[in-house]
Design brief:
It is a single chain. The chain is mostly beta strands. It is 8% helix and 49% strand. The chain has a single domain, classed as SH3 type barrels (Roll), CATH 2.30.30.100. The chain has one helix and six strands. A hairpin with a 6-residue loop joins β3 and β4.
Length: 73
């Protein structure tokens, strides 16, 4: 049913929230949380901002997730 979640782990994704998005490697799913590494913060009207460390996002706040293919990693 949710096979994309399994296949997306360790791939580059864009996790879209209501007011911003994160581009990074979906490193792990831990209960209600997504753990991203090698992350850039994406906000309208601004250049992508690299982020240090891991970013943890609550799944309930995710509007949709894009799995990137090709040269992105």
């Amino acid at each position: 049913m949710f096979a994309w979640r399994r296949t997306a782990v360790r791939k580059r994704v864009v996790v879209n929230l209501a007011d911003k998005a994160f581009s990074g490697i979906l490193w792990a799913k831990r209960g209600p949380l997504l753990v991203l590494r090698d992350v850039e913060l994406l906000e309208a009207g601004r250049a992508p901002q690299p982020m240090d460390g891991e970013v943890v996002v609550e799944r309930a706040k995710v509007e949709f997730t894009q799995v990137l293919t090709g040269g992105g990693g």
